[in-house]
Amino acid sequence: MLSIIEIYRSIQGESSFAGLPCTFVRLAGCNLRCTWCDSEYTFSGGKKMESDAIFAEVQRLSPNGLVEITGGEPMLQERALVPFMQRLLDSGYQVLIETSGERPLANVPKAVHKIADVKCPDSGEGDSFHLENLNALTKNDEVKFVISTQRDYDFARDFTRLHELESKAGGVIFSPAFRKDATGARDASHCLLSPSDLADWIVRDRLNVRLGLQIHKFIWDPATKGV
Ligand code: SF4
What we know:
This protein is of the alpha/beta class. It is 24% helix and 22% strand. The two termini are 24 Å apart.
């Protein structure tokens, strides 16, 4: 059994898979409270679903391709989630998991593409990343930093350098945080940090990281859920 908020098909908005059609399985519950969180509706509720029923819905939406496991924090349901991800892999799906890395990731199947969202200080959840998870990262994985201030940027840059993420992971993403109450205009005015400032700093500091914009917030109204 897994506690599920929603299962839907849309366009992947982040990571190196941005722009590709993807089926999202959003799990309920999170043990963090990031200040800019846009998924607070996952904190409570959720529908208990058998693995068979979730798998059937994923297959109905798409018989193949990309599936992202997200939340909330999906690894809070590790015991049931790990075999479910393995089942997706065995059926030929390409599987991504978006996680804060606060829980151990050692048991995530190696073929799952992990996107570890390391929290910066001004998220209010700095120091939540479990450093041992760095040992579970491979070239198949990505590390993401959601950045809302210059202090966050300095943290992300220093963490990237200290832990040699540019060579250890398949990619490093620096993404400007969006205001959680953003609605209306589909443009960068909702970002808490100017993307052009972020671009300047990345180039200035000669980082080999990707500036990631959440493209779903430019395609649809930023307040839209299930996209
Ligand atoms: S880890 Fe994700 S879901 Fe949890 S509070 Fe932070 S942004 Fe929201």
